[in-house]
Design brief:
The complex is a heterodimer. Helix content of chain A is 36%, strand content 21%. Chain A has five helices and ten strands, in the order H-H-H-E-E-E-E-E-E-E-E-E-E-H-H. By secondary structure, chain A is an alpha+beta fold. Chain B is mostly helical. Chain B has a single domain, classed as Cytochrome c oxidase-like, subunit I domain (Cytochrome C Oxidase, Chain A, Up-down Bundle), CATH 1.20.210. In chain B, strands 1-2 form a two-stranded antiparallel sheet. Chain B is globular and about 80 Å long. At the A-B interface, helix 1, helix 2, helix 3, strand 7 and strand 9 of A face helix 3, strand 1, helix 8, helix 9 and helix 10 of B.
Chain lengths: 272, 581
């Protein structure tokens, strides 16, 4: 009896909590509205099932609770009912799965004109690399990483000389232009996660992963690491600043290319 | 049906003569079950305390000085691994599997009693090795319960020197123990059922444990090889999972390995593991609901097939844990589809539980309260699984508190509610005493409501985007101050629920010594374990002759019958039901 009432109250309480909770999705800052839509559809379908099933549960417990003289019926099974339930469940699944798969298809199909930027994770900081005028990121390898070559660029690869190196954990991107963020890790797993972008993906040492997105509003957004990466995991932060095109270009021009850093390093060490 | 003589062979029974033979080096499945259960619950209490410490840090950051980031991540890791493997798997299979299978299928014992005994002692060894890691230099591993390399074995992760080695060794030992027990459970179900006990007459409890054990026997080897390979990477410098990386500014000697290979092996075990825990709980709760609602489990055949189908499908969904792992993105289509398909047989089970209640005669005793509580929490946890299984919806939620809320509802709270319900249900048979009903109800209400207060808000923190495995959020612009209030409330609820478990322990322990003598079949249940000649059952279970089974386990409220239940070993009284024999 009490349990039936409590389950009814929990359903109502959950709904109230859902609609009044101050903790909901951050305002979106990328093109991934499809993901939010699929999430919303899932919320409605699952919410309806949650309410219906639990209210039926509460009603059954209330209605058929033990009383003197009350007896249960004997009904081993009802295949027609089971088939109907299976059909409606499968239909609900399709309604949720279809928009999910369509959004995924877009998520993994990078537009041809996407600008490339590389995000590099290393315990416990972010750095970034732009491909420079040639549009190609130069080759990198762990063995080249050192104090004067933190990005591990291959000094003999000409494609790398114009790569623009951004240290310090803050990257700027232009608004309304699709960007492919190539992800690379120098040590352990990390995950490039900006809640307002919705997109996220692991950085895996030994291989290159990617996400893509189109920023749709300017602002400063925090990058969090979302794959446990050791004791400093929770302080591995960075920032993405979405600028208008001109401001972005101005920002980018302040950073040296790999070629320039080599010249500077060579001058400082007094080498010929 | 085929009738195997192994069931009636009493020669193999080795009756112990001493106290040590009876209670320590015991080959009696019932004693081994209690040994398994007490050990699992004991180590589970350690994990419970660790979760309380974690919650203290999250609710009141920095309040307790010794919870450093290192310690926090060690607590996270040990809490997760202990709860999943050393508590739930050991308790549901080693505990309930051992106790219930022979009694429910009408056998005198497991078919390999000596191996069964070894299984427990090897399990105990695995627990000791795991606990030893708290006392080695550097402490236990803080790699997260998933132990993802490279981080699990590199500097920068707590316990990367000794803790991880002991963890991997302990897992290997556990798997040896599980295999010895598991082969026993499967063989006993297949070979030692009493006369008349066809597979489709077995209680759902046996079906759940049986299929879960098969899953374990197929899934644990993947974890074993992963553990062995990581151990080789760590100890002798192989590179199974280790690409060329730098650590603490220095390049390591490894090269060419694949961190993602480990994730595939881990989740090829890890996802079936969810069902290794869930299926026994599904089976047990079916029997609790049926017995206390005085009504047959609705759609028994569908319930059995759903268990089997879920078991098979559980091997085809593992990579839904890896949507944002960097694996080939096209896998996402396949695994999202297979994952959502598994929701269909799971939903059927939920419908049938509720339909069993419909037109029942529901006795709301403590075990039934836990069973009904389970239906609620499992509906919640199952539905949030549809968010995470649906590849693109998973992307924003992955690695957030939504995941934490989801898996605790579905494989923490739900199975634990079933475990409590099952303990209350079978306690009179196991001990011969009855517990205190008032304390049982109090325990239920605090646990059921408290856990919902803990986990419901976590889903919304996850929706907001709060990442999991964070020692503290610090200043993060998108997280409002109110999120910290949620964390404080969750912590208070968690500590309350944790402390409230003392009610349960007090009830169980005091009833064992002072509880009233229990009726041999207090709930009027049909299955064989309630029909033993002695309560608690003696070694050999059945006295001189084995029971013969004439009907399924669910003859409740049969029209025309004198009582509202007919035990499985009661012969049919008329020609009308003869064809069922």
């Amino acid at each position: 009896m009490r349990i039936a009432i409590v389950i009814g109250l929990l359903v109502i309480g959950s709904l109230v909590f859902h609609f009044l909770s101050p903790w909901r999705q951050t305002p979106i800052a990328s093109n991934w509205g499809e993901i939010d839509n699929a999430l919303t559809i899932t919320f409605w379908v699952c919410g309806a099932v949650f309410v219906a099933l639990n209210l039926f549960l509460a009603y059954s417990v209330f209605r058929f609770r033990h009383r003197e003289g009350h007896k249960a019926t004997y009904e081993p099974e009802n295949m027609a009912l089971e088939r109907r339930l299976t059909f409606w469940t499968a239909l609900g699944i399709v309604v949720m799965l279809a928009p999910g798969l369509l959004a995924w298809n877009k998520y993994i199909s990078v537009p041809q004109d996407a600008r490339v930027v590389e995000a590099i994770g290393q315990q416990w900081q972010w750095s970034f690399r732009f491909p420079g005028e040639d549009g190609v990121l130069g080759a990198v390898a762990t063995k080249h990483i050192g104090p004067d070559n933190p990005f591990g660029l291959n000094p003999d690869d000409p494609w790398g000389h114009d790569d623009i190196l951004v240290e310090g954990g803050e990257v700027h991107l232009p608004i309304d232009q699709p960007v492919k963020i190539v992800l690379r890790s120098n040590d352990v797993l990390h995950n490039f996660y900006v809640p307002q972008f919705r997109a996220k993906m692991d950085l895996v040492p030994g291989m290159i992963t990617y996400i893509w997105l189109t920023p749709i509003r300017t602002g400063t957004f925090e990058i969090l690491c979302a794959e446990y990466c050791g004791v400093g995991h929770y302080v591995m932060r960075g920032y993405v600043v979405i600028d208008e095109e001109a401001a972005f270009e101005a920002w980018l021009s302040e950073f040296p290319t790999y070629g320039q850093t080599r010249v500077i390093a060579a001058n400082e060490s007094g080498a010929p | 049906m085929t009738y195997t003589t192994i069931a009636e062979d009493t020669r193999a029974l080795h009756h112990p003569k001493t106290w040590v033979g009876k209670y320590v080096w015991s080959q009696d499945h019932k004693v081994i079950a209690v040994q398994y259960s007490l050990t699992a619950i004991g180590v589970g209490l350690v994990a419970l305390v660790l979760s309380g410490l974690m919650r203290l840090q999250l609710g009141f950051p920095g309040m307790i000085e010794f919870i450093t980031p290192q310690a926090y991540y060690q607590f996270v890791t040990m809490h997760g691994m202990i709860m999943v493997i050393y508590l739930l798997t050991a308790l549901l299979l080693g505990g309930f599997g051992n106790y219930m299978i022979p009694l429910m299928v009408g056998a005198r014992d497991m078919v390999f009693p000596y191996v069964n005994m070894l299984s427990y002692w090897v399990y105990l060894l695995s627990v000791i090795v795991l606990m030893a890691s708290f006392f080695v230099p550097g402490g236990p591993t803080g790699a997260g319960w998933t132990l993802y390399p490279p981080q699990a074995i590199t500097e920068g992760t707590p316990g990367a020197s000794w803790g991880i080695i002991l963890m991997l060794a302990s897992l290997g030992i556990f798997i040896v123990a599980f295999t010895m027990g598991g082969l026993n459970y499967v063989t006993t179900v297949l070979q030692a059922r009493t006369k008349g006990m066809t597979l489709m007459r077995m209680p759902c409890t046996v079906w759940g444990i049986f299929v879960a054990t098969i899953l374990g026997l197929l899934a644990f080897p993947a974890l074993l090889v992963a553990a062995v390979m990581m151990m080789l990477d760590r100890v002798i410098g192989t590179s199974f999972f280790m690409p060329s990386i730098i650590s603490m500014g220095e390049p390591l000697a490894h090269s060419g390995g694949s961190p993602i290979l480990f994730q595939h092996l881990f989740w090829f075990f890890g996802h079936p593991e969810v069902y290794i825990v869930a299926l026994p709980a599904f089976g047990i709760v079916s029997d609790l609901i049926s017995t206390h609602a005085r009504k047959n489990i609705f759609g028994y055949r569908m319930m059995v097939w759903a268990i089997i189908i879920i078991g098979v499908l559980s091997f085809f969904v593992w990579a839904h844990h890896m949507y944002v792992s960097g694996m080939n993105p096209y896998f996402g289509f396949f695994f999202a589809t297979s994952t959502l398909i598994i929701a269909v047989p799971t939903a059927i089970k939920v419908y049938n539980w509720v339909l069993t209640l419909w037109q029942g005669d529901i006795h709301l005793r403590t075990p039934m309260l836990f069973a009904i509580g389970f239906i609620f929490t499992f509906i919640h946890g199952g539905l949030t699984g549809l968010f995470l299984g649906n590849v693109s919806v998973d992307v924003p939620l992955s690695d957030t508190y939504f995941v934490v809320g989801h898996f605790h509802m579905v494989m923490g709270v739900s199975p634990i509610l079933v475990v409590f319900g099952a303990i209350y249900h079978w306690y009179p048979k196991i001990t011969g005493r009855m517990w205190n009903a008032t304390l049982g109800q109090l325990h239920f209400w605090i646990t059921f409501l408290g856990t919902y207060v803990i986990y419901l808000p976590m889903h919304y923190l996850g929706l907001l985007g709060v990442p999991r495995r964070y020692y503290e959020m610090g200043e993060t612009e998108f997280v409002p101050a109110s999120a910290q209030w949620a964390n404080e409330a969750i912590t208070i609820a968690a500590l309350t629920v944790g402390v409230a478990q003392l009610i349960f322990f007090y009830n169980m322990i005091s009833s064992y010594f002072r509880g009233p003598k229990a009726d041999p079949n207090p709930w009027g249940a049909t299955s064989l374990e309630w029909q033993t000649p002695k309560t608690p059952p003696e070694h050999g279970n059945w006295g001189p002759t084995l029971p013969t089974v004439y009907r399924w386990a669910y003859d409740y409220s049969v029209p025309g019958a004198a009582q509202d239940f007919i035990p499985q070993n009661v012969p049919p009284d008329g020609a009308a039901r003869d064809r069922d024999m």
